[in-house]
Known about the structure:
Layout: H1 10-46, E1 59-61, H2 67-76, H3 78-81, E2 85-93, E3 102-110, E4 117-125, E5 137-148, E6 152-163, E7 171-172
Parallel strand pairs: 1-2, 3-7, 4-6
Antiparallel strand pairs: 2-3, 2-5, 3-4, 5-6
Amino acid sequence: MFICNFKINQKKLVKFFILIAAIVVLALLGFIISKVWSDIQNSNNENTIVSDEIPSPDVANLTSENYTDILKEVHENLDTYIGQKISFTGYIYRVDDLEENQFILARDMIINSKNQTVVVGFLCEYENAKDFENNTWVNLTGEIAKGYYYGDIPILKITSIEISQEPEDPYVNVPSDNYVPTAVIY
């Protein structure tokens, strides 16, 4: 039979566990710092604007081709676009629960090969909104602001509006998967 007797120095054992705990804490802290640094670097790279176009410093004109890409981007990153002025053409569309000074400046988006459409658009506020009937085509300029309609959404505060003709192509494209969002709408 083999018997072994150990004498444990309690002070050395406590120091050993404190040293191990300090190493673990430092390793975790280093991992967290490297993760945060990596996220900062990635977010800086994502905000880099790569474009041959010169941004419009005043008013961005939306087109049928970029309309839904921009609409989607503004909804997803509203705080980035507050104060951006945009101009585009659409028709007046209302739903029952809008305020008297509100309407949706709408376009129809084809969603499948059977030409089924859905209405898409920016919620707009205008003092004299009730002067414009539903389905009236207008060209407007407005500034993006944060509003509330079943959650935070962009609202265009209209600065100018005029009746216009229906465009040759009244439909807008579905959002593309390769749209590159920027902090400025081109």
